[in-house]
Amino acid sequence: MSTVSVRDVTVAFESVQVFDGLSLDIDEGEFIVLLGPSGCGKSTLLNAIAGLLDVADGQIWINGKNVTWEEPKDRGIAMVFQSYALYPRMSVRENMSFGLKMAKTPRAEIEKRVTKAAELLQITPLLDRRPDQLSGGQRQRVAIGRALVRDAAVFLFDEPLSNLDAKLRNELRVEIKRLHARLGKTTMVYVTHDQIEAMTLADRIVVMREQKIQQIGTPDEIYHRPANLFVAGFVGSPQMNFIKGRLENTGEGLSFLAGDRRLSLSAYPFATAPSPGQEVVLGVRPEHLEIASKGIWQGFKVDIVEPMGADTIIWCSDPIGSVQVRTTGSRRAAPGESLTLHIDPTQVSLFSAETGERL
Ligand SMILES: Nc1ncnc2c1ncn2[C@@H]1O[C@H](COP(=O)(O)OP(=O)(O)OP(=O)(O)O)[C@@H](O)[C@H]1O
Q: Which of 3, 78, 80, 354 to pair with 159, CA 20 to 30 A apart?
């Protein structure tokens, strides 16, 4: 059953139309991440689900109920924003209780929920402190706790970790994942432009660009079978290598050709019927360019070597374009050295040069 259903939604800001009939179904208990560059419409979509802005057309359903015209507080959702927005003069306990008090929840029930949320987030020892006596990470935990006590079926997060330093962000990311697992059936919709957060947290990622959904898929699908050149280039660091070329029928069946480089595509799982002569872009992840002792892709010249600890990134140049190779941390190479690369054709992605769509 879908917990959140966005049906053919259009949003307009005065003269600017943001979505034109956007639809998305989110299942009960799913962790959905909305991922995309600044301005792609992630927050607008989240705010439309939350009821913080009106839709011009279409419907929003939450828990089997049409909530398109319901107030945010009546939608069965809880939100966590980038800025914690805690009340500075109230203790953590009071901050977490405030919304429930306003809703006239009985005192014993408030106490029970705050105790449980504090335990889940490991902030019980902080309950009597004020926000200015907390670190950034602790404040964001309190903000999550304040959402948690609402016992909502759907949690909406808008870049909740982007104000934190890298170490805290990693810690809290793991906490959020653990929280989702513990809560079981709670649906989470999480906005970020950080692909690591998206890959590690999501059951499914929704990749957006210019207010349109580009692809919806598991992190594995998004990473290994990107639907188009945009998704392929946006997800993955270092970025996927792109090599321009064309499809040709050779003695080995259909092949990719770029300059005098050739790759047999007999094992490539084409999603659409390929046409020989077609201009294409070959996409290959840096970790799928293997340094080999022999092979047909010889003579790639090493430009720069970046030792990263766990792995090494080697930048190579070639008449067909420059590529980045990800190899083991202990591998070294000298600038000017010549490398032979092996590519497994089942690990590559092919895109139409004309449309950018996956072939
Ligand atoms: N109040 C508004 N009035 C006019 N245009 C708006 C308004 N809010 C958002 N937009 C436009 O809608 C588009 C989507 O914005 P949105 O904030 O949803 O993007 P985003 O992906 O969340 O970006 P960011 O990561 O920078 O927050 C942008 O082109 C933005 O300029």
A: 3
Show pLDDT as tens, one digit a residue, over the chain (359 residues).
Answer: 679 999 999 998 888 888 989 999 999 999 999 999 999 999 999 999 999 999 999 999 999 999 999 999 889 899 888 877 889 899 999 999 998 998 899 999 999 999 998 988 889 999 999 999 998 888 888 998 988 898 888 999 999 888 888 888 888 899 899 989 988 889 999 999 999 999 999 999 999 999 999 999 999 999 999 999 999 999 999 999 999 999 999 877 899 999 989 999 999 999 988 889 999 999 999 999 999 988 779 999 999 999 999 999 999 999 999 999 999 999 989 999 999 999 989 999 999 999 999 99
The response to whether residue 40 sits with its C-beta less than 6 Å from ligand 1 reads yes
Q: Is the ipTM of this complex over 0.85?
A: yes
| Long-range contacts of 224-227, Cβ-Cβ distance < 8 Å, separation of 24 or more | 224/347, 225/349, 225/358, 226/283, 226/349, 226/358, 227/357, 227/358
In ligand 1, which atom is closest to the CA atom of 44? 18
Q: Whose CA is closest to 48, among 82, 14, 83, 13?
A: 13
Nearest CA to ligand 1 atom 9: 44
CA–CA dist 139, 126 (Å, integer): 10
Please identify, by atom number, the ligand 1 atom nearest to the C-alpha of residue 36: 21
Q: Is the CB of 117 under 6 A from ligand 1?
A: no
Q: What is the rounded CA–CA span in Å between residue 350 and residue 345?
A: 10
- Measured in angstroms, how far is the CA atom of residue 34 from the centroid of ligand 1? 14
Ligand 1 proximity of 38 Cβ (cutoff 6 Å): yes
Q: What is the pTM of this model?
A: 0.91
- Tell whether ligand 1 has an atom less than 6 A from the beta carbon of residue 192: no
Please work out whether the CB of residue 39 comes within 6 Å of at least one atom of ligand 1. yes
